[in-house]
Amino acid sequence: MFHRVWRTGGRAGAASVVLTALAALSSAAPCQAADPIKVGFGMALTGGLAVNGKPALLAMKIWEEDINAKGGLLGRPVQLVYYDDQSNPATVPAIYSKLIDVDKVDLVVSGYATNMIAPAMPIIIQHNKTFMGLFGLAVNTEFKYDRYFSMLPTGPSPKLAAANEFFDVAMAQHPKPQTLAITAADSEFARNASDGAREMAEKLGLKIVYDRTYPPTTTDYESIVRAIQATNPEIVFVASYPPDSVGLVRAINEMGFKPKIIGGNMVGLQSTAIKTQLGPQLNGIVNYDFWVPAPKMQFPGVMEFLRKYQERASAEGVDALGYYLPPWAYADLQVLGEAVEEAKSLDQGKLAQYMHSHTFKTIIGDVTFGNSGEWTKQRTLEVQFQNIKGNDVKQFLGVDHEVILEPVEYASGKVIYPFAAARP
């Protein structure tokens, strides 16, 4: 196994020192024919995003092993080179500068999450690299970079995709809700998601009675819920990252807050550890997801991958089931690997051209990229947590407690409405 791991240490300043020291020690040996093809990235292995970053890394390691067992790419083994970005956007530019300028990686992919992808983009663009973004919401809207490709099924209008399935569920109820509250973390992802919610509100004629962001360092979520509750909204749209998603769910339960429908874009509720931690407190929440093991979503290869992942999850200390991010992290590298093999090149322009012009068959289904690098067709799921009892992980193995509501072609059940009717 060709495998080397570099990790940034401590805080951003310490990370800079480590990167400088590693740069001084790096070898300048010329590439040989048998040298590995190096794939470089940062990943959240510590900090608030590690709950999803660490499972993603295990999935990528499994792809590395699988592709090397088949002979690698272009007849060369593949080697992952990665650093811990500490869930801190400030570490990202230095990581990608080192990967490209010092480690001389052949290919680059992103780490997990919008907030970690956006700060990498200027470095990627400067070096004209083809770049796969893993779960980045509308990252390329401002950059408009023609070598960026998004591994996220939000389709050609990603900001709206973050909201429209949620509002489709809400507005199908009778009588139709009239009022909306929006709360979001003050971060790149949450701002993009809440932009979509505002656009949907205008389109649907909803009255926004509350619309505020909160700092990423927030610890008092009861005050946020109390302020929303005071405006008596029927719909509550939330855009949050894992630590605040947990805090908000706990506050909603502790305060007995019961709007007609609540959820939207709460990152972290897809994590097995968080599901088992919160248990019945999740009942009734309507939220996005990207894959659950419903029969219609068991694409070729995905269950075999999950078997490999789950066999190793405990020893690696990661998400026990791996439904949320791991299949997508594996598919991310499947796409890149196929592009290399079919283009028969590591030339970044040739790879981007191939990726724009072909459909990829992956373990999460067919993937086709449009001109912006987003998927040509949206496939965001809207799910509702229902009838959860206790905190046993086994109840989350199937789809009985995480019911797909939208899109209709993947639906596995019906919404329990209003929110109070689904409460324990």
Short key terms for the protein model shown above:
alpha/beta, Rossmann fold, 2 domains, 19% strand, disordered N terminus
- Portion of residues in helices? 25-40%
Mean pLDDT: 92
- Find the CATH topology of the largest domain: Rossmann fold
Question: What characterizes the major β-sheet?
Answer: 7 strands, mixed
Question: In which order are the strands of the major sheet placed?
Answer: 8-7-9-10-11-14-15
- Round the Cα radius of gyration to an integer and report it: 21 Å
Large-scale geometry? globular
Total strands: 15
Task: Briefly note the structural class of the backbone.
Answer: alpha/beta
Total helices: the number is 15
Unreliable parts? 1-33
